[in-house]
Specification:
The complex is a heterodimer of chains A (76) and B (441). Chain A is mainly alpha-helical. Helix content of chain A is 75%, strand content 0%. The relative contact order of chain A is 0.05. The chains are: A mainly alpha (76), B mainly alpha (441).
């Protein structure tokens, strides 16, 4: 074996990890830039998620039922 | 005068090409005809003996000395007889893993059954004229199947979590250390010890298992080391299936309880336009930086673009379901065809399985460590548990991050946060694959 293969593979690693990091760092920069541009020029209203509104009396009944169940569980 | 010469030459060229075309098919039918043996009448006893000699059990007991493997090379008696029995038992083990343990059944079942068929004596199903051999040539030898799978995966991927927290892409980059770290280890062991001897190409193809991306592994293996394809594909897919077993101990060993309880801020809303232009942006980047990676990234982004466009629901649906299912069946069978005894029952396979798990673990560890490094800098903190999702294995690795996080804080939902590094890992391993390909070009 004439050439040192380990030295070769070390070069692979420097090149490979360097490229992967460079690529993804550029991607991060572009993503941030893209977000700024899109939000600046093409704003889109954030969809409001409908919050489930519970009838307060129904909620109170549920709490009572749960409490009763817990008490029953502890006592038994 | 000049015109005349040109005309003359053209005429000559046409005449020559037509004679070439005419002479080409002439010899063909004769060659085919000579292979068909004329029927010779035989006695019943002779016929019975002939039949017995063509049974599978006879072939397993008395290996045919002239039998060649699928590449037309001679193989040892062990690989023709007991080796096949051992391989068939191994495929039964794969069935058990898939059915009883639920390990990647979508792939292990086709791969296992392909392996079972490939080890049948006499029939030569995985040979150049057998149907598995044809399926292999059709889509795996030319890397078509992994590319189509990538389109489907692209159509299933949501870049939203990555777009709303871009810096988590660094975790996906760090996790690719598993690939290159293992490459050095494999080459060092090949050079300084006698345990195994892999060439640089073979070592590269093996270490890509650390990217935890089945299609990418197959893509690279069929390009750089087709002779190791079966073992690499099996290692890659079995480790992807074993993510929930392999990763948590590494994640726990490298993090403190406080770190595991870090809550991450809720993800911001990502607009549809952002998601729509992102595939094009990444593809443009890879065109500029690394055209070698564009087959994988291009197919991935094509699938994603169809999905995000929102106007081709039918195509999107086909990519995500029908097409990826069909190709998965063929891909599994084609990989299985490489599980024939003469190729799989060799010392190299054990080395590949061992190196593969090292690559996978190193990638997981590198992702977690990268998250800890990011936490040393000011800014919002990252839960190191999502670092392990930097290896691709979408979405299994992200689910594992979520599960381990929930063990320490029931209210800590890490799934969406982990999807960011997860999809970045897919891009990262495609880039790493592109780098390796460009080196050997």
């Amino acid at each position: 074996m004439t050439e040192n293969l380990v030295a070769e593979s070390l070069k692979f690693m420097v090149l490979g990890m360097g490229t992967v990091f460079m690529f993804l760092i550029i991607m991060i920069i572009v993503m941030n830039l893209q977000a700024k541009i899109v939000h600046r020029f093409f704003p889109e209203p954030e969809p409001v998620e409908p919050t489930p509104t519970l009838d307060t009396s129904a909620q109170a009944k549920k709490v009572a039922a749960a409490t009763a169940a817990i008490m029953h569980h502890r006592n038994s | 005068m000049k015109l005349f010469i040109v005309k003359f030459l053209t005429l000559f060229a046409i005449a020559f090409s037509t004679t070439a075309v005419a002479s080409a098919p002439a010899g063909h039918p004769e060659a085919d005809r000579s292979e068909v043996k004329p029927y010779v009448s035989k006695g019943l006893g002779e016929m019975v003996v002939g039949f017995v000699q063509s049974t599978g059990i006879y072939a397993l007991m008395n290996p045919d000395p002239d039998e060649l493997n699928n590449h037309g090379e001679p193989m040892s008696d062990f690989h023709k007889s007991w080796g096949r029995v051992v391989m068939i038992l191994i495929t039964f083990f794969l069935f058990w893993l898939a059915i009883a343990k639920g390990f990647e059944p979508l792939l292990l079942l086709p791969i296992g059954f392909g392996g079972l068929l490939a080890n049948i004596p006499v029939a030569g199903i995985a040979g150049p004229d057998g149907f598995l051999g044809i399926v292999y040539e059709m889509g795996l030898a030319n890397q078509l199947f992994p590319i189509i799978i990538f389109m489907g995966v692209g159509a299933m991927t949501d870049f939203g979590p990555l777009l709303s927290n871009p810096k988590t892409a660094l975790l996906g980059a760090a996790a690719q250390f598993g690939i290159f770290g293992t490459l050095i280890g494999a080459v060092a062991l090949s050079q300084y010890t006698d345990i195994f001897s892999f060439t640089l190409q073979q070592a590269s193809a093996i270490s890509i298992i650390g990217g935890a991306d089945g299609p990418t592994s197959i893509f690279i293996a069929s390009e750089l080391a087709p002779e190791l394809l079966g073992a690499i594909a099996v290692a890659s897919y079995s480790y992807m299936a074993m993510v929930p077993i392999i990763q948590p101990p590494i994640m726990r060993a490298l993090t403190t309880v406080e770190e595991r309880k870090i809550k991450m801020t809720t993800l911001r809303y990502v607009t549809r336009l952002e998601k729509l232009i992102f595939p094009i942006v990444v593809l443009t980047l890879s065109i500029l930086v690394l055209p070698e990676s564009t087959p994988l990234i291009g197919a991935f982004m094509f699938g994603n673009f169809l999905k995000e466009s929102g106007v081709v629901e039918r195509l999107n649906d086909t990519l995500q379901n029908a097409l990826i299912n069909i190709v998965t069946i063929f891909l599994g069978l084609a990989v299985g065809s490489k599980l024939s005894a003469d190729q799989f029952l060799v010392a190299d396979t054990l080395a590949i399985l061992a190196l593969g798990i090292i690559a996978f673990s190193a990638g997981t560890a590198a992702g977690v460590i990268m998250a800890k490094i990011m936490n040393m800098f000011p800014g919002t903190k990252v839960n190191p548990l999502i670092g392990s999702a930097g290896v691709s294995a979408v979405p299994m690795a992200a689910r594992v991050s979520n599960k381990v996080g929930m063990e320490y804080d029931r209210t800590n939902m890490l799934l969406m946060h982990a999807m960011g590094p997860n999809v970045a890992g897919v891009i990262g391993s495609a880039v790493a694959a592109g780098v390796l390909l460009s080196i050997f070009k």
